[in-house]
Amino acid sequence: MLSKTLAKEIINLGSATGADFVELFCEETSSKNFSFENLRLDSVTENIEYGVGVRLLKNFRSVYGYTNDISKSGLTKLVEDLRASFDDKTCIEDVTSFKKKSYKKKNIVETYSKDVPNETIIEYVRSALKSIKDYDQRIIRVTGGFSIRDRSVTVYNSDGVYFDKFTEYSRLNLSSVASENGKIETRFDGPGTSSGWKFFTDTLDINKICKNHAEKVILMLGAKECPAGRFPVIIGNGWGGVIFHEACGHQLEATSVAKGLSVFSGKKGTMIANKIVSAYDDATIPGEWGSYDIDDEGVVPKKNCLIKNGKLVGYLVDNFNGRRMNEKGNGASRRQSYKNEPTSRMGNTYIAPGKNTPEEIIANTKLAIYMVTFNGGSVNPATGDFNFGCSEAYIVKDGKIVAPVRGATLVGNARDILKHIDMVGNDLAFGQGMCGSRSGSIPVNVGQPTIRVNEIVVGGRGGSIDEF
To answer: Rounded distance, CA 371 to CA 291, Å?
Structure first.
């Protein structure tokens, strides 16, 4: 896409007025999206996007720009506009050659989804939607689709290093609407992978996914409204990890930590959670939705321990924010595309499994709200306050699940919820999602085993919990 000769010229031009680091991020991405309305194929769209992002750094300052005019004149104009931000005539040495950064590829793909015939994908999605629609006549609408994103990247920098990478993300989307007596209930499932088509045919149990989807949307349709109050809360595995991701994970990214904007800034080495809680971000897990072989700054990711036995031991750090923290990047620098400046982001973030089975957690709970899946929420990064809506929840009494409830909301604070986790299950699972932040929308896994929080505020429109 961009020759080494031209990359060298542009980098040296960028450093000519005092930038201490210059980076060219060259990208070509192709995407294909299949969209269904009920059982009818609504559209198949394909798109190709390419361009170059240029980043100039000087101490704690950063300027960024991008263009899809990748000619010498187009890139020269972009760099000249950017370097006007620096007036220091002290220049780094010119790049005379590039050395390729080598790394081990862990995400081995046998069959890329992009190579699967359209007809095969269409039939796969239509069959899944049909099994949901046919489950119950109260399911009045099913929508869904399949998305494929193939991303080819080459990065050059003023350290004389370059690297290439290719990643494919593919995802199935299933949504339904159920209705009865004026009540409406919705559900969404979106399993995804970076391991290619065989995940959907050989690993994913699509029949189980669809059956569970249909059963739960009908079950929640007939549920009573959730009572409000302060209760113990059991949070389910997999998608339950969105609470840790949003309320705590973002607060552990150098994006906010480096400038003291996180509730966990300066807290490394202190106890921020119950000692039974450990948490990691691990982008090296083969084939997972949030995995990658090398980050967008050329740092190979590792299994980053964030919390160890309740103690804050690490942050997610990119090289630029690491300058303020006096730390090197640990493989967490990511971005949506060449249009976004990279920064520290999560990959596969999760609370580590504990010793209890989920059955033991429920059996040892006198009274609680059991929240299984969540459908969105908000977090104040400065305070750590959050609220999340729950799409599937139950009442637990005397060690048994007694009734489903709808309309439950979880309200709390990041610093408090970690300290109030008093049981951790052994059933770690992941849920796939898209995370939006300063460097755009990127694929991430949220994860955890089943956990119990001994007390937290639950919002709802129901009556007394004694009614159940």
So the answer is: 27
